[in-house]
Every structure is written in structure tokens, then in C-alpha cells.
Amino acid sequence: MKKIGFIGMGNMARAIVRGVLAVHAAQPEDLSAYAPHFDRLSAFAGETGIYPCRSAGELLERSDTVVMAVKPYVVEGVLAQIREALAGKALLSVVAGYTFDRYRPLVGDGVRVQYVMPNTPCMVGAGVLLFEEKHSLLPEERAEAMRLFRALGEVVELDAHLMDAATAISGCGPAFVAMMIEALADAGVKYGLTRALAYRLAAQTALGTGKMQLETGMIPAAIKDGVCSPRGTTIRGVEALEANGMRHAFMEAVKATIEK
Ligand SMILES: NC(=O)c1ccc[n+]([C@@H]2O[C@H](COP(=O)([O-])OP(=O)(O)OC[C@H]3O[C@@H](n4cnc5c(N)ncnc54)[C@H](OP(=O)(O)O)[C@@H]3O)[C@@H](O)[C@H]2O)c1
């Protein structure tokens, strides 16, 4: 197995590491990471068994493939520091908005690049991983990257022009879905459920509804119709959600992430 090094070990990189280790898609000794706060990094390394590096240079010496997992505003500064050491390696980047064409002038032709947009449910093997179709990995490197990421969830290949829209749904989506679960649970608490039970019911219902849609292929409207009997209670709730702009709120949320 090739050695993989993470630059940045925050929420997203941790979700990836936890996900691949949970299903043994990689062994801890194959993984290294560098992040500026060494104490925080070494605590996570102690928990997972990955190797914590004291510098980006050390990380590059230990890695065949580098996963760039820092915030977008630090990418160019990081690349400037590691440009020479990165030559000849494969770079998998999960940085939102850094497509293949955006990377090319920053790293030169000597670095083989793949833009991947994961989401945090990778942590539990139920993620979505958007792979940009345009890349410069060798065929065996791309196959290996896909094998690794398939262990974390569903891999979807997309043209660059669709990456932003897809990122809004699957990359940002866990925040929107979590807010929906929280809001539904708040309503349950208002009517007497304990907080823990309300979360459990709301989260399991979100999970089950998604699973039902994926496994049966029923369109969401058919799932909704199946719960709404004539003069029943659910259709009243549907009316209340529409009257309060639920659909428009989701449209606006996605628009806000795309039209920054
Ligand atoms: N969170 C998500 O749901 C999600 C989903 C898809 C894609 N992404 C992408 O993943 C990337 C990281 O997001 P995140 O949510 O994981 O952010 P985060 O939790 O803030 O983590 C950022 C990491 O970058 C490290 N870092 C900061 N400056 C650095 C430098 N100069 N050199 C090396 N490492 C540095 C930080 O180190 P310290 O901890 O030491 O400060 C931290 O480990 C972003 O580009 C984002 O677009 C995130």
C-alpha cells in the first residue's frame, strides 16, 4: 500500500481517517499527517495510530500520495512551501473550489492531481465522494484512490462545471440535514419528548427515508404521498411546511453556497 500523508487534520481529514481505519481500507502505519498545532495533532494520532509529523517537509518525505485538507484560504501558502518536495507525487485535494484547472498553474505538470469533494458522513462509511472527471493521476493511482474512498461511501464522478452544485448538496448537505433533524427534534421536545428520544426518532427517520428512496427508487413525492392520507394529519404538516417556505429555504441555502 502506498503511504498517504494528510496536510491538515481538521474535521474533514479526521472523518476520512476514521472512515478508512474503521473498515481497514488502510492501516494506521500507512497514514501520516501534518498540522501546525502539534499537540492537537498528536492527541488524534495517539487515538488512531497514525504518524504525526512536525513539519510539512517531514510529511512529504514519508508520503507517496498527499491529501490536501486545509481551508481554501491557506492552500496557496502551503503549496508555496512544499512546491519542490511535492514534485513527482500524487495530490488528492479535498479543498472546496480547487478544481484540477485551478491547481495546475499552482503545482506545475510534475504533480499528479485529483480533486475530490467528500462529506463528513465518510466518518461512518455513509459519505458521498465527488471525483472530478478531469485529473492527471496515473490509472493505477486513480483506481487506488477510488478503492480507498469507496470504503467511505458512494463515489460519483462529475464534470468540473457540476462540482459546485453537487458540493452544495452533498458537501454542505450534512449541515442542512442536521438542522432539519434538530428542528424536528425541537418540535418533539416542545410536545414532551426527551431531547435524546427526539434526536433518535428524527435521525432514524431521516436515515430510513433516505435509505427507502435509494433502495426503492421511489421519487420523494411518492414517499410523501404514502404518508399523507386524505383529511389526515400529515398533509396538514405538509401544508404548514410549504406555508413557511421550506422548499424556498433549501433553494436559497444552496444558492447562498454557490453564489458566494
Ligand atoms: N468540513 C466539511 O464538511 C468539508 C466537506 C468537504 C470538503 N471540506 C474541505 O476540507 C478542507 C478542510 O476543512 P475542515 O472542515 O476539515 O477544516 P478545519 O477543521 O478547520 O481543519 C483545517 C486543518 O488545516 C490545518 N492547517 C491550518 N493551516 C495549515 C497550514 N499552514 N499547514 C498545514 N495545515 C494547516 C489545521 O491545523 P490546526 O488544527 O493545527 O490548526 C486543521 O488541522 C476545506 O478546504 C474544505 O473545503 C470540508
How does this model look, in words?
- The chain has helices at 11-22, 38-48, 56-62, 75-86, 100-107, 139-150, 160-171, 173-190, 195-216, 220-227, 234-243, 246-258, and strands at 4-7, 31-34, 51-53, 65-68, 90-93, 112-117, 127-132, 153-158.
- With 260 residues, the protein is of the alpha/beta class.
- The protein folds into two domains: 4-159, NAD(P)-binding Rossmann-like Domain (Rossmann fold), CATH 3.40.50.720; 173-258, ProC C-terminal domain-like fold (Orthogonal Bundle), CATH 1.10.3730.
- It has an eight-stranded mixed beta sheet with strand order 3-2-1-4-5-6-7-8, sandwiched between helices.
- Strand 7 (127-132), helix 6 (139-150) and strand 8 (153-158) form a beta-alpha-beta unit.
- Helix 3 packs across helix 4 and helix 7 crosses helix 12 (246-258).
- The longest helix has 22 residues, at 195-216.
- The two termini are 39 Å apart.
- The mean pLDDT is 96.
- NADP nicotinamide-adenine-dinucleotide phosphate (NAP) binds next to helix 1.
- Residues 7-13, 34-37, 40, 69-72, 74, 78, 94-96, 117-120, 171 line the site of NADP nicotinamide-adenine-dinucleotide phosphate (NAP).
